[in-house]
Each structure stands twice: as structure tokens, then as C-alpha cells.
Design a protein that fits this description.
single chain; two-stranded antiparallel sheet; 6 strands
């Protein structure tokens, strides 16, 4: 969607998938603040409803609680 270019998406994270609540072309990593293209998003927390740029960031967030 052209109108969503450059804007963060709002997603609902579920086990093995996510649902787009508001269109955008990226989300922001909860740990690092790094932009993650929607097509590259692989790691998130269902419980926290947070995206992560890397497996290490997701693992570290789970350790914190």
C-alpha cells in the first residue's frame, strides 16, 4: 500500500503469525529501536506484543521477564 510507505505498521502478534491492524512498511524493534521491514519480521513476543530485530534480542527480552 503506497500510503503506508515509511510508516510503522501496527500488528497483533500471534503464535506463528501476526495480523495487520494498521498498514505500514515496518515495525520498530522493542529492544534496539531498529526498523524492521514487515517482510523481514521473524521474531516477536505474543505475551508482550513486541517485535524484535534478531533472535538474540528476543531471547534477551524473555530473560528480563
Amino acid at each position: 500500500m503506497l500510503m503506508a510507505q515509511g510508516r510503522p505498521a501496527r500488528l497483533h502478534y500471534m503464535a506463528n503469525t501476526f495480523r495487520v491492524l494498521a498498514p505500514g512498511d515496518h515495525v520498530v524493534c522493542a529492544a534496539s529501536g531498529e526498523r524492521i521491514a514487515i517482510d523481514d519480521l521473524r521474531y516477536w513476543s505474543v505475551r508482550r506484543q513486541e517485535p524484535y530485530a534478531t533472535a538474540d534480542a528476543a531471547t534477551a527480552a524473555e530473560r528480563v521477564g
